[in-house]
Amino acid sequence: MGKYAIGVDFGTLSGRALLVDLESGAEAASAAYDYPHGVMDEALPGGARLGRAWALQDPQDYLDVLAHTIPAVLREAGVAREEVVGVGTDFTACTMLPVKADGTPLCFLPEYKNRPHAYVKLWKHHAAQDKADRLNQTAQERGEPWLKYYGGKTSSEWAIPKLWQLLEEDEALYRAMDRWIEASDWIVWQLCGREVRSSCAAGYKALYRRQSGYPSPEFFRALDPRLEHVVDEKLSRRLAPLGGCAGFLTEKAARLTGLAPGTPVAVGGVDAHACVPAAGIDGPGRLLAIMGTSTCHMVMSREELPVPGICGVAQDGILPGFFGYEAGQACVGDHFAWFLQNCLPAAYSEAAKAQGKNLHQYLREKAQGQRPGESGLLALDWWNGNRSVLSDGGLTGLLLGMTLQTKPEDIYRALIEATAYGTRLIVENYRSHGVPVEEFIASGGIARKDPMTMQIYADVLNMPVKAASSAQGPALGSAIFASVAAGSARGGWDDLYQAIRALGSRVDAVYRPIPEHTAVYGRLFSEYLTLHDYFGRGGNDVMKRLHLQG
Predict the structure, then answer these.
(1) Beta strand pairing call for 295-301 and 286-291
(2) How many CB atoms lie within 10 A of CB 503?
(3) Nearest alpha-carbon partner for 524 in 396, 403, 409, 371
(4) How many Cα neighbours within 13 Å face the side chain of 227?
(5) How far apart are CA 506 and CA 509, in angstroms?
(6) pLDDT per residue over 309-363, tens digit each?
(7) CA-to-CA distance for 211 and 140, rounded, in angstroms?
(8) Percent of the chain, pLDDT > 90?
(9) How many whole angstroms separate alpha carbon 526 and alpha carbon 496?
(10) How far apart are CA 271 and CA 475, in angstroms?
(11) What is the pLDDT at residue 469?
(12) Which residues fall within 8 angstroms of residue 25, CB to CB, at 6 or more apart?
């Protein structure tokens, strides 16, 4: 009988399950399921309209992922449920939902179905920006010592601003809510029947620090007197590390997934953090860029240092024994998809279809022959706000240099280059504040399928870019954590680093910088920085003024 682990990765638009053979390290089967409700950013299913910058989801979609993908991978691989020694999960974060004391989401209850705040607030819900601004101002005025370890500025994407928005806009629902919980922790609750919160999600997304805990009740009272005891009333001080066993699959969850009751369930993870061991990274100085709808830039160090503009640094936040750093870009794959959906002439779609190519492939082929700088275009990659290093969801995108000769492929390439410039700024920000970045590894669909983009990144960064081989990095990482949660007695591992060496993926391709391209991109990056600082650091707040007019 074989030994397998399952990792389930809950993304922005779909969930994916991966079955991993623990004896050979092979990825035995995978399955994906698109969320039926997708991202709700205009209205609820019942018709209730949403405000600007909202992004909600229905947690029923997450349960449907479990019901569809796990049985599918077992069938595809011909694996019996008893051969699965553990299951692990990860989520995009910060993705929060309000639930009752038994874990029931408020949006499942008839009386709350038409209340927007009863639903999941996805990571890219930016409607709490004003709360983030007030939180940052209060923390700065009080001299809160923890703020510098969150880049000096908390994002509207994180847990507390979203919770505060709920309180201000629907206090009755806030009082009806017993727990405010990360989706990654909620799905583990559904699997093992008990609330177990991850120190990873709390450390990066909810202002928790292992050394000192959460901010004080006095700080929360300074924000709003009703929040004084929010940690004990709505959150939890009992936190578990990645790789730990949260519990065991309940009879109900076994019926849902097709797995055996009693199967170990790993502590829930964050997708980007789970991807690090999947890429075979087991030490400091090796930055992993997880490229999807957004990009997260993860790196570890032996030191804890305050780095402006990052999302956070946490002790043991990625792997035990190191301080894990997180930065990110809020719009990457979303950036390119927006352009295809809204800006292409019909002739391009027709030509791509006639050639049997998808639009991304068609545009890449038209753009890849261009020399750096040939189009005369420059963009700021802020279509979904700026996560790092400005941490400002109120910023918007910019495209500069268009003429009557500008073509769609010119713009497409300029948007790709903008994300590369944003990544270079993040790398330089790490380095200038004492966090070494000696190697750059990319993971995700873009890294595996888009050589043009990877070459642009290598040229802009002026360093080799390595593409990780696994197509399902976060899911593989979750399977690695599941194997450790199971332990050697069940066929897994007792040591996380042994599991990483056995199961972590390898490098698929290496893209090396082309010197003449690097020289041009160096000059263009200087222009990018000028625009970045002018529009992002107070030189001209026109983006925010326009944003408020909408």
Answers:
(1) antiparallel
(2) 25
(3) 371
(4) 22
(5) 9
(6) 999 999 999 999 999 999 999 999 999 999 999 999 999 999 999 999 999 999 9
(7) 20
(8) 94
(9) 42
(10) 8
(11) 84
(12) 502, 503
| Residues ≥6 apart with Cβ < 8 Å to 452 | 364, 367, 368, 416
Distance CA 243, CA 265 (A): 10
What's the length of the chain?
550
Strand partners, 65: none
Helix (H) or strand (E) holding 509: strand 507-511
Please check whether residue 86 is in contact with residue 260, taking contact to mean a CB–CB distance below 8 angstroms.
no
- Residue 462 and residue 446: Cα distance in Å, rounded? 19
Predicted TM-score (pTM) of this structure? 0.92
Report pLDDT digits (tens) over 177-234: 999 999 999 999 999 999 999 999 999 999 999 999 999 999 999 999 999 999 999 9
Two tokens, residue 339: 């352009």
In angstroms, the CA 63 to CA 37 distance is 12
- Going by C-beta distance under 8 Å and a sequence separation of 6 or more, which residues neighbour residue 358? 352
The two most distant CA atoms of the chain are separated, in Å, by 68
For residue 320, give the amino acid letter: P
The residue among 48, 164, 166, 178 whose CA lies nearest residue 102 is 178
For residue 181, give the 3-state DSSP assignment.
strand
Which residue blocks in 385-463 are alpha helix, DSSP H? 408-432, 445-449, 451-461
